[in-house]
Amino acid sequence: MKFGLLFAYQTPPESGIKWSEPYQDMLKILPRAEALGFKSALQASHHIQPDGFCPSPMVAMAGAAAVTEEMRIGTSVLLVPLYAPLKLAEDVAVLDNLSNGRFVFGVAPGYVTEEFTAHGIPRNERGTRFEEALDLMQLAWKGEPFSFEEQHYQVPEGLVTPTPMQTPHPPIWYGVSAKSALRRAVKRRCVQIMSPRHGLAELKEHYAPYEDEAAKAGWVPPERPIIRQVFVAETTEKAEAIAAPAVDYLYRVLYGAASAAGDRVLKNDTGEVIADTDDVGYRTFKERYIIGDPDLAIRKIKEYERELRPTEMVCWMHMPGIRGSDVANSIELFAKEVMPAFA
User: Fold this and answer.
1) CATH of domain 2-225+309-342
2) Tens of pLDDT along 129-162?
3) Upper half-sphere CA count for residue 54 (Cβ side, 13 Å)
4) Rg of the chain on CA atoms, in Å
């Protein structure tokens, strides 16, 4: 199994961390992480969040490309309906060339109501806009003059150069769980990437229709990445002291709030739907993140390996409010004491 890193650059208001600090952390951390054997650096994104959750993932990953040589860099995930698809096709092509063919295009239709309202996009159009935009981009990446005329997007005359370095284009990872969306992911031959908000049982449930659809199509997905909140320290007590407030904040402010608003269901470890952010706490979701000493991390990752057969675990270590020095220590310890167990 390979391992990667996920970044979001959230700075909770009470943390006292400057907006710039987590970005500088990423630029300093990645060269060392690459030397230690981490294989990817991916960028989460959301919009109009109060804590600086990265709203511009392509720009951030351009920075990541500049300080690495071999790691794959990419979005996980970019909320496609909030972007102009022709411009997005151009940006992906440039970033793939900038990174020398290392870009992974993780995409999703989005779900947070306020994000669509702020961008003037009807939330109920997110699914059709998402698929239509991907159709346009895949056509544009051929590098030939084209036209496009559909419900949401029209391009009378278009041409995208440069074309992506990877052919026919960078890998597309679908961050979806609805069965209809998973069928379309298989039709496009796209890899499924699941949110870290889901527990192990939910992940298995969401992978099943994707696998069934792939089997019907006679296609074997080339990889199966998963994302988990991960943090290791010399002792579990120390790891929890640093990381527990971060995951508590994350599940309360983003995932819990969205569930309470009815945008997207969040279930706790016992399967109950979160209807109030007061129902969220570190212990509520303890089974779905990996926070502890190296032995605990190995034990939990082996469970994922046994139950899901992932090809890569993308580790979200730089969580809200965690200082870069603590993240760097976690990365070192993880690489030296956890990763060898999965070589």
Assistant:
1) 3.20.20.30
2) 999 999 999 999 999 999 999 999 999 999 999 9
3) 27
4) 19
